[in-house]
Amino acid sequence: LHVGHIRYLEAAGALGDILIVAVNSDASVRRLKGPDRPIVSELERCEVVAALHCVDLVTLFEEDTPYNVIAEILPDVLVKGGDWTPDTIVGRDIVEGRGGRVAAIHFEQGFSTTSIIDRIRTR
Questions:
Q1: 3-class SS at 105?
Q2: Positions of E strands within 1-123
Q3: DSSP assignment, residue 103?
Q4: How far apart are the C-alpha atoms of 7 and 12, rounded to whole Å?
Q5: C-alpha distances in angstroms, 118 versus 27, 30, 100?
Q6: For position 102, what pLDDT does the model report?
Q7: Which residues are 77's β-sheet partners?
Q8: What is the pTM of this model?
Q9: Which residues are bridge partners to 101 per DSSP?
């Protein structure tokens, strides 16, 4: 969890009444990021995210995308980082099909878990 995540979650929380964060399971992260990831276990990541004042609920998902979680929760607002274009946001069809909206939050440049890991390795 880095400052880019914090800024993103605080902005997402301001868009609705309740902020539910869907976190990739360890298996999902490994499939998407490689065998050396995640660095922190899914339960620890969920606990840290749940401790943030802007977060109301946290859930895990096993798939590579949160599509099934979105279909279960049926949010009024779906938020992703600004590095996603509206046409590539998973679950957009579900949310907009129910009259909800999709928002892309400004992507904070210069913050990434990968860059933190790289800095630790080089030091």
A1: strand
A2: 20-24, 57-61, 77-81, 101-105
A3: E
A4: 9
A5: 22, 17, 39
A6: 95
A7: 101
A8: 0.86
A9: 77
Q: CA 38 to CA 76: how far, in whole Å?
A: 30
Task: Report whether 90 contacts 66 (CB < 8 A).
Answer: yes
* Residue carrying the six token digits 């907009």: 96
The residue behind tokens 């004042």 is: 53
DSSP 51-86: TSTT--EEEEE-SSSSHHHHHHH--SEEEEETTS-G
- Burial (CB count <10 Å: 0-12, 13-18, 19+), residue 123: exposed
For residue 21, the one-letter residue type is: V
Q: What is the pLDDT along the chain (123 residues), one digit of tens a residue?
A: 888 889 999 999 999 999 999 999 999 999 999 998 898 999 999 999 999 999 999 999 999 999 999 999 999 999 998 778 878 999 999 999 999 999 998 766 666 766 777 777 788
Cβ neighbors of 90 (< 8 A, separation 6 or more) are 65, 66, 67, 70
In DSSP terms, which residues pair with 104 in a beta bridge? 80
Identify residue 122 by its one-letter amino acid code. T
